[in-house]
């Protein structure tokens, strides 16, 4: 089993074309995973964050999963929410403390936090958890003005520049991961079959 966990920034700067593009990219990406998941070993889950985190869809097989259309809403006072990476880290920490774990985490954002540089403590707490350290974390940037993979975003992507990707590349990255996953799975099953026949 492999769980793909998508976490979306729904702060005010994502309003309009950016969130529409995210919805389209997620629909396409899930179609890619469904096409690869012949043995139904892949699961997906969806959460959103701004000033707090909310789990919108629990983990389901990708063949059964249908993500809802996500929007950016103004508050009662008419103001749009800001992005908090500290809230993001705390939300992930709470989910893992409550038993959730994932193999691939995709943080989809335009990279414009209100608390830039102020989530160091939360990030350090998150990295203590074995489940977070063992997962592959990607930052997926949306918006024409967002392609600037600075140090802050690299920290969220485990300091890996190759894990900061554009939204346009999400489907191809999911395809690459899915194919690699099945090659490894097939090899493991083949090894187990030979071990059963010939002894290990």
Task: Describe the secondary structure blueprint for this structure.
Layout lengths: L1 E8 L7 H20 L5 E8 L3 E9 L23 H13 L6 E6 L10 H9 L1 H5 L1 E6 L9 H6 L7 E3 L3 H29 L2
Parallel strand pairs: 1-2, 1-4, 4-5, 5-6
Antiparallel strand pairs: 2-3
Structure report:
- This protein is of the alpha/beta class.
- The chain has one domain: Rossmann fold, CATH 3.40.50.410.
- Helix content is 41%, strand content 20%.
- It is built from six helices and six strands, in the order βαββαβααβαβα.
- The chain has helices at residues 17-36, 85-97, 120-128, 130-134, 151-156, 170-198, and strands spanning 2-9, 42-49, 53-61, 104-109, 136-141, 164-166.
- A six-stranded mixed sheet has the order 3-2-1-4-5-6, with helices on both faces.
- Helix 5 links the parallel strand 5 and strand 6 (164-166).
- Helix 1 packs parallel to helix 6 and helix 2 (85-97) packs parallel to helix 3 (120-128).
- The protein is globular, with a radius of gyration of 18 Å.
- The protein starts with a strand and ends with a helix.
- The mean pLDDT is 85.
What's the short version?
The protein has helices at residues 17-36, 85-97, 120-128, 130-134, 151-156, 170-198; strands at 2-9, 42-49, 53-61, 104-109, 136-141, 164-166.
């Amino acid at each position: 089993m492999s769980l793909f966990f998508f976490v979306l920034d729904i702060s005010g700067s994502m309003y309009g074309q950016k969130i529409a593009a995210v919805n389209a990219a997620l629909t396409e990406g899930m179609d890619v995973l469904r096409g690869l998941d012949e043995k139904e070993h892949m699961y997906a889950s969806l959460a959103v964050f701004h000033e707090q985190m909310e789990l919108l869809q629990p983990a389901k097989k990708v063949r059964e999963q249908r993500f809802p259309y996500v929007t950016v809403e103004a508050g009662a006072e008419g103001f749009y929410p800001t992005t908090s990476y500290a809230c993001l880290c705390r939300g992930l920490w709470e989910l893992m403390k409550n038993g959730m774990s994932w193999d691939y985490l995709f943080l989809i954002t335009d990279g414009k936090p209100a608390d830039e540089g102020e989530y160091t403590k939360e990030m350090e707490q998150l990295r203590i958890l074995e489940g977070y350290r063992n997962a592959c974390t990607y930052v997926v940037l949306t918006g024409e003005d967002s392609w600037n993979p600075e140090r802050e975003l690299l920290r969220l992507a485990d300091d890996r520049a190759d894990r900061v990707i554009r939204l346009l590349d999400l489907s191809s990255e999911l395809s690459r991961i899915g194919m690699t996953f099945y090659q490894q799975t097939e090899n493991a099953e083949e090894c187990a079959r030979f071990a059963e026949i010939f002894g290990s």
